[in-house]
Amino acid sequence: MDILIVGVGGQGTLLASRVLGKYALEEGFDVKLSEVHGMAQRGGSVMTYVRIGQKIASPIIDEGCADLILAFEKLEALRYAHYLKKGGAILYSTQEIMPMPVVTGAAEYPQGIEAKLPGTGVDALGLALKAGNAKAANSVMLGALCKKMNFDRDKFEGALLSCIPQKTMEMNKKAFELGYAAV
Amino acid sequence: MKKLLLGDFAVARGAWEAGVKVAAAYPGTPSTEITEELARYDDVYSEWSPNEKVALEVGIGASIRGARSIVSMKHVGLNVACDPLFTASYTGVNGGLVIAVADDPSVFSSQNEQDTRLTAVSAQVPVLEPSDSMEAKEFTKLAFELSERYDTPVILRITTRVAHSQSLVELEERQEQPLRAYEKDIKKYVMMPANARVKHAVVEERMKKLSQDSESFAINRIEEGSKELGIICSGGVYQYVKEALPEASVLKLGMVYPLPFELIRKFAGSVKRCIVAEELAPHIETLVKAAGISVEGKNIFPRCGEFTANLIRECVLGKKVEAVPADVPARPPVLCAGCPHRGVFYVLSKLKLNVLGDIGCYTLGAVPPLGSMDAVVCMGASVGMAIGFDKADPEAHKHSVAVIGDSTFIHSGITGLVDAVYNKAKITVIILDNRTTGMTGHQNHPATGKTIKNEPTYELDLAEVCRAVGVPNVRTVDPGNLAETEAAVREELAKDEVSVIIAKKPCVLLTKKLYTGFRINDKCKKCKACLKLGCPAIVNGKNGITIDVSLCTECGLCKSVCKFGAIDGEVK
């Protein structure tokens, strides 16, 4: 299974890929993850690849090959939608983060994105705020992903909780729960 | 035990298992995590060196004294370390010396796309190239063995996709290596002309022997497949080839310099069509063709950018995947909300100054709307370029500054400053002192007063360094205070001497606080003054100008530029 995780640098795509990797490994699969560090993390568009299967060669997912795209931001979902294979789906946060060309007025944030995306939108930011803080939006999305993919909830949530600091545990648990219930 | 490991971590693990005693590096994406990981092992001495040249010299010293040592850097870091590298190739080693170098095809986080293999050819140093984390660990161990067996430093070349991918690794125990005996050997270690002349011939012989021996190295292997098509490849590209062309015969080279020419000749002769698939320079292809072996290569593959399985299918088989990207606005990286550099760049942009820049997060000061960066070349170049501006144009100093980060200043800005004072330049240098090495993920450096293991050490005082080299005007400002910063820049520009302004404020990402964020109230006149800050948290959208509370870090810069008191929130 090839899952592309996309978003804006700083949103926590790395955490999401590591949780997925941990879970897949526990389920007995071969896993390869590919991440982007450095310059691209500073508020830029970022993508992380998660490949799960019996034997994985390339750590990256090509255009037209992803089974699922997990998008932490709506415009980023659209930017990478062509990575989906035929019949693939996108699970996306409806959050909008304005890229700098939009902030400066050089471009407009595209309208009607939802209609172009084959998949499900989640109000991850709203639910994260409900859980305690905007930063928990990635846990909301992971909750939604867990439900959508029919993952073993206890194992998947366990993988998430083992990757986050103790002090934000309760907030992330709540966020995961809200995300799980949202799809 | 099998574990999912980042390629960089696997290199670190391999070095540890190989009994490495000394590890030195300057941080550089995508190599940083090798040494960060090594710092977790108590039985390895590790350090952040001020730059890659010093790091390699530490490694050379440790090797001569008999310890296995590893030095890590990114591709452009190897340029800085080239001086010791080229001569360490002559001296050879005592304890194994491995130089892990991470290239960055597609330029994810670098200033160029150079190919380390070409540098290795010039330096006459062997190069191993792993294709995943398991090989990263195994090849690192092998690199130490080869280094000692052939009396040479060995480069372990990885690329971003190997360094920053995670795959399964079988962990093993550390093989402790006793410190090798050291014997004074002037002919081997003192590279003055009489000795170097002799040593050059030794180096040429060594590489010839290594090339011959590598014919039977297990890491150079043929995977037999179709006789119609054979691919010669190495590193990460091997994985794309296996994905794209599962039927093809493959010659996987674990050592990409020197090459096993007879093995290559045999392979090329066994298939109808033989292609070298390699990212960046036609390194293997050129050498193979020079040996009189006919192959395809860059006639079908690009020299720029990283490969993918799709690209290989397209170039080799002519099969194109139809996937059309949506036409959407770009999202370039930007200075973070709350970044302490923003205040400085806002002032420089407002004063319309020419800005000679440097390497770090603050290179993003070039991105609109701040757009306040004129030239960025390499680590430390800002200071030298400012001197050049001044010497070329007697008026330049009135409207130009150099900006350089704290870590970069220590890396290679200090020597430029010595030049400025010595040669009476009239430049103004702004040290963007965010108290960390930011872009690479917050590493300590000599001015943080903490070692790589977070242990307290002497804290280099940047202002004292500047005064010590003779800078007459040194002052420190808070870049969060726009009025103070602007006044300082104006005053120092007016002087006909060297000035250094230290803009000191910690990186916003160092404070792991949760923020509630500022709000814009109904006094907003939509004058858009706040938008000139280029803050990603301030949005001009369909609901007017708003603050994205998920990004806002309450730095207060927007409050200081707003004339109408339209922003609610308290700067703490």
Task: Please tell me about this protein's structure.
Chain A has 183 residues and is of the alpha/beta class. Chain A has one domain: Pyruvate-ferredoxin oxidoreductase, PFOR, domain III (Pyruvate-ferredoxin Oxidoreductase, domain 3, 3-Layer(aba) Sandwich), CATH 3.40.920.10. Chain A is built from eight helices and six strands; from the N terminus they run E-H-E-E-E-H-E-H-H-E-H-H-H-H. A six-stranded mixed beta sheet of chain A has the order 2-3-1-4-5-6. In chain A, helix 1 crosses helix 7 and helix 5 runs antiparallel to helix 8. Chain A is globular. The two termini of chain A are 20 Å apart. Chain B has 572 residues and is an alpha/beta fold. Chain B is 35% helix and 18% strand. Chain B contains 20 helices and 22 strands. In chain B, strands 3-2-4-5-7-6-12 form a seven-stranded mixed beta sheet, sandwiched between helices. A five-stranded parallel beta sheet of chain B has the order 14-15-16-18-17, with helices on both faces. In chain B, helix 1 crosses helix 2, helix 3 runs parallel beside helix 5 and helix 11 crosses helix 14. Chain B starts with a strand and ends with a strand. Chains A and B meet through helix 1, strand 2, helix 2 and helix 3 of A and strand 8, helix 11 and strand 20 of B.
Helices and strands in order:
The complex is a heterodimer of chains A (183) and B (572).
Chain A: E1 2-8, H1 13-26, E2 30-34, E3 45-53, E4 66-71, H2 74-79, E5 84-93, H3 100-103, H4 113-116, E6 119-122, H5 124-131, H6 137-148, H7 153-161, H8 169-182
Parallel strand pairs in A: 1-4, 4-5, 5-6
Antiparallel strand pairs in A: 1-3, 2-3
Chain B: E1 2-6, H1 7-17, E2 22-25, H2 32-38, E3 45-48, H3 52-64, E4 69-74, H4 75-80, H5 82-91, E5 97-103, H6 116-123, E6 127-128, H7 133-150, E7 154-159, H8 160-163, E8 165-170, H9 186-189, H10 193-213, E9 221-223, E10 226-233, H11 235-244, E11 248-252, E12 255-257, H12 261-270, E13 273-276, H13 283-290, H14 309-317, H15 341-350, E14 354-356, H16 381-392, E15 400-405, H17 406-422, E16 428-433, H18 462-468, E17 473-477, H19 482-493, E18 499-504, E19 519-520, E20 538-541, E21 544-547, H20 557-561, E22 567-568
Parallel strand pairs in B: 2-3, 2-4, 4-5, 5-7, 6-7, 10-11, 10-13, 14-15, 15-16, 16-18, 17-18
Antiparallel strand pairs in B: 1-8, 6-12, 9-11, 19-22, 20-21
Helix pairs in contact in B: 1-2, 1-7, 3-5, 11-14, 15-19, 16-17
